[in-house]
Amino acid sequence: MERFFNTAGPNVIEDSYTLDPLKRFDLDDILMYIRQKRYFVLHAPRQTGKTSCMLALRDYLNAADDYIAVYANVEGGQASRNDVQSVVKSTVDTLAEQFRGVLKSDLPLEIRREVQDVGKDSMLATYLRRLSEALPKPIVLILDEIDALVGDSLVSILRQLRSGYADRPKSFPQTVILCGVRDVRDYRIVLSNQDIVTGGSAFNIKTESLRLGNFSKEEIHELYMQHTDETGQKFDEACFPLVWDATEGQPWLVNALAREATWSMKENRDRSVVITPEIMYRAQENLIYRRDTHIDILIDKLNEPRVKRVIEPILSNSDEPVEALVPSDDIQYVEDMGLIKRERAKTIRIANGIYREIIPRELTWSTQQMMAQQPQWYQNADNSINMEKLLLEFQQFFRENSDAWIGKFDYTEAGPQLLLQCFLQRIVNGGGYIDREYGLGRKRTDLLVRKPLTEGYGGPIQRIVLELKIKRGAIEKVIEDGLRQTSEYMDTVGCVDEGHLIIFDRSKEKSWDERIWHKPFEYQNRTIMVWGM
């Protein structure tokens, strides 16, 4: 039976193309931590492969026969929230079933009945203590989705795990591995009395924190080649740089792109069809437009105040120092979710190309639907985009509507850039793509509009560079910097048909007649059109 690229739940090697999960982390280090009886954390963004890796670790340990390793997902307790008794009982019930499955014995269920009447603040600890004493080998306990629990319930679970630490391994698990999206030290737990407890204080026995990384370029290639080896369907080698830029190895995105290209796009189920970059671009657009679960969760997170505080200055290209704009714990929170990456020189950027596309498009989705512009209005006879005509129209639109339309955005500081991208997206949806580059500390947004002029892969493509800047300081300096940046981006892209520098002037004291203008500038043997908005 043909295997598939998995986008839902843990990988089953018989069903899905799979990288060896035990090679996705340093197994030697983990085995050393277990031998040293350490309690530690493994964290990574959602749908990165944590569960697959932990299940593989459980099976590896049990096969070696030195420990009794049990994996349990405690997310079910989330529904009871601050009802500590319900959450603790749910957790103990889950553990009892998982231990029964591993041991093939009813002993875990019998001990569960023995602790039925133990108080909520010690039931879990008592259960683990009695089970550890009854079993012939030390326990390695893997608790997944621990940060799905909240408030008093989470604190109770963490403190009960901590309470038996001194009694390991004879009377308590030798090792506990906590898995979640974030490191336990970053938990800010609000109790029912509104006090705030940090995860570090509730679980101060943690000695290591491991992060499960994304796929490397080589691993993406290895995964895709499993499909080629089993079906004969080839990927054009030019696909792989595109897949890397779109995903930067985020496992769900890597699998989702390939699944879309090789299965959901039904014409490509013919395994004689070679998967080309054009097919991959279309697969990417399909994923974004369809808003699969992974993307829907991402979109929902944009409404959280902590996420907005980080993402909004990235979109608006603020030139203030990061520390002056965003609390460090908010940055860590959004980074742990996998939305951003921190780089040298304290720059922060969106984590990958698909997320860079999703965020501005989602923030302007309802606005796009209300715009009346149609792609054919700005299309030349050769199927190319008449960008000068489009920007002239946008200038008028911006003059008449910017205050009202920007006010509809949740991210108002990034309003001008978002509104232009919204306008462009409506036009480009007629058969083209927008590549976006932006990040805190970059002081501009780079847009590359690519418009295929013929059907199919390999034909001529129109490429237009647009540089978006907010006017801060003297206009002469902004233009000077903007021309240099636009030219540099045109060099990076190569084979560019035209370049435009758009400068948004948000000075309220200036009239619209002063702010709306356009003029060609010569820079390094290039003509760059500069637009004032």
Describe the protein's topology.
Blueprint: H1 27-35, E1 39-43, H2 50-64, E2 68-73, H3 84-103, H4 107-114, H5 123-134, E3 139-144, H6 151-163, E4 175-180, E5 188-190, E6 196-198, H7 199-202, E7 206-211, H8 217-231, H9 239-247, H10 251-264, H11 277-290, H12 293-301, H13 305-316, H14 322-325, H15 328-336, E8 340-342, E9 348-350, H16 353-363, H17 365-370, H18 387-406, H19 415-428, E10 433-437, E11 439-440, E12 445-452, E13 461-470, H20 475-493, E14 498-504, H21 512-515, E15 517-523, E16 526-532
Parallel strand pairs: 1-4, 1-7, 2-3, 3-4, 13-14, 14-16
Antiparallel strand pairs: 5-6, 8-9, 9-11, 10-12, 12-13, 15-16
Helix pairs in contact: 3-4, 3-6, 9-10, 9-11, 10-11, 13-15, 18-19
How many DSSP helices?
21
In the sheet with the most strands, the strands line up as 10-12-13-14-16-15
What is the residue-averaged pLDDT?
A: 87
Apparent shape? elongated
What structural class do helix, strand and pairing data support? alpha/beta
Instruction: List low-pLDDT spans.
Output: none
Strand content: 15-25%
Number of strands: 16
For the terminal residues, how far apart are their CA atoms? 58 Å
Major sheet, described briefly?
6 strands, mixed
- What is the rounded Rg? 27 Å
Helicity level, as a percent range? 40-55%
In short:
This protein is of the alpha/beta class and 533 residues long. The protein is 45% helix and 16% strand. The protein has helices spanning 27-35, 50-64, 84-103, 107-114, 123-134, 151-163, 199-202, 217-231, 239-247, 251-264, 277-290, 293-301, 305-316, 322-325, 328-336, 353-363, 365-370, 387-406, 415-428, 475-493, 512-515, and strands at 39-43, 68-73, 139-144, 175-180, 188-190, 196-198, 206-211, 340-342, 348-350, 433-437, 439-440, 445-452, 461-470, 498-504, 517-523, 526-532.
